[in-house]
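Quick note —
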Amino acid sequence: MSGALTARTVAAELAPTREDITNTYPFSHEPHADLMGLWSGSNYSLGDLCSFLGLESPKADVDGSQVAELTREGEIEIVVRYC
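Predicted structure written out below.
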């Protein structure tokens, strides 16, 4: 499915009709949708996708460079929300 078609489908609040579209996580038998897999080939960041979908980004207050320090400081809940 192209990135544009996927984006329009999500914007229209339609559910995917094929399991291979949503079951993209290669390390688990549970269904899992990796957004970057759904929008592969696009330049969308997670923040862009959250904005497009009207969701608050978990990346707004933390970036990957802060994860190690937050973990050392015991701020595991912040890291969990970020991840």
